[in-house]
Predict the 3D structure of the following.
Amino acid sequence: MKLLKEKIEAEGKVLSDSVLKVDAFLNQQVDPVLMQQLGREFAQRFSADNITKVLTLESSGIAPALMAALQLGVPLLFARKKKSVTMTDNCYSSTVYSFTKKEANDITIDKKFIKANDRILIVDDFMANGEAALGLIDIVEQAGARVSGIGIVIEKSFQPGGAKIRSAGYQVESLVKIASLENNTVQFADDDEAQSTKQLALKN
Amino acid sequence: MKLLKEKIEAEGKVLSDSVLKVDAFLNQQVDPVLMQQLGREFAQRFSADNITKVLTLESSGIAPALMAALQLGVPLLFARKKKSVTMTDNCYSSTVYSFTKKEANDITIDKKFIKANDRILIVDDFMANGEAALGLIDIVEQAGARVSGIGIVIEKSFQPGGAKIRSAGYQVESLVKIASLENNTVQFADDDEAQSTKQLALKN
C-alpha cells in the first residue's frame, strides 16, 4: 500500500535492526484519515469472506480494526491483556508472549461475543513473531468459529510470524511488508513492490 | 443523546449501584456506527473551539476519540498506562488512580506530541471520580497547552468527577448522564432529558 509506505518513509523511525517506531501515526499519535484508508483496504481485501466480526488486541490494533469493522459493517471486538475480575469464569483466554516487552500476557475475551457461526477477521498493527495473531487465532478456534483471515498493517517479513501463520493455512494480508531494518534503513519486501506496480497497472 | 440512551437501556448491564457494564457496544465489543455518531456529536459540541488534537487514554477511550478526531480533522493521541522503556526520559506523565481496579497507573505521552499552542479536546468513555480526566488535564497543562474541553460518553453524575472538573472551570460535555444505578435500574439525569427536549425543539 503505497500511501502507508510513504508515511513510514516520512515519519517512521528505525530504532534497531528489528524495531520500527511508528508512534507518529499509529502507536501513540494516530492519523484518523490514514486509519480510514487502512480500514477500507482491509475491507476490500476480505470483501468476499462474509466477515461477521473484526477481532483485535488492545491497544494499538484498535484504531485500524475499528475502521475495518466500520467499512465491513460489523462489530469490532478487542481482547484485553488484563483479565477483568468480573469476567474470569466466562472468557476465552490465550497466553501471548511479547518479545519486545519480554513478558507474557493472558489475553481474554468474554465468551458471549464469539459464536461458532462467526467468521472473524483478525486485525493487528504489527506482525513480527506472530505471537499476538496466534493468540487471537487460538481464541477464535476455542469458540469453534472460523478465522477468515488476518489483516496486518505492517509485517516485518524478516521475522518468522507471517511465514509460520501462512504455512498453517491462514490468509495473511499485510498492507506493507518490511524485508529489513538494517543500516538504519527501511527496506520494503519485493512482493510488496510487485503488488504496488500491479495496482498501478490496474489503475492505468 | 437519545440514541446512546436507547443503546444503554437495551444492552447495558447494571452490575452494582456504581457499575454499569457496556461491554456489548463500547468496552469489549464496539459498535463502529455508534462510535461514528458519538464522534460527530463531540465534534459538533466543540466545533467552535479550534481543536488541534484529541487526547484519550488507552484502551476504551480510543474508539470514540478516534471518531471525534476524524470528524474534527485532527490527530488522535492516546496516553499509555505503561511506560515504554524507550520513552521514559522524554514524556509527560501523571498518576491516575482507578477506584474500580483499585490500582494506580502512571499514564504517559511522548513530549513531542503536545506543543504549547495545542488546543486539546480530551475524550473518554466514562466519567466517575474524574481521575483519568484529571490525569489527562495534568499532562496537557504540563505541556503548557490548552484544555479546550472534556468530552465524555457516559458520565455517572452521582459520582463526584464531573462536578469537580466543571467547578475547576473546564467545559465537560457528557453525551449521557446517569443519576443513579440503584435498584438495578439506569436512571438518567434530568438535565440530560431537558437537553434532549431542547435539541428536539431546535430541530422542529
The radius of gyration of chain A is 17 Å. Chain A is about 35% helix and 30% strand. Residues 32-45 of chain A form the longest helix (14 residues). Residues 196-204 of chain A have pLDDT under 50 and may be disordered.
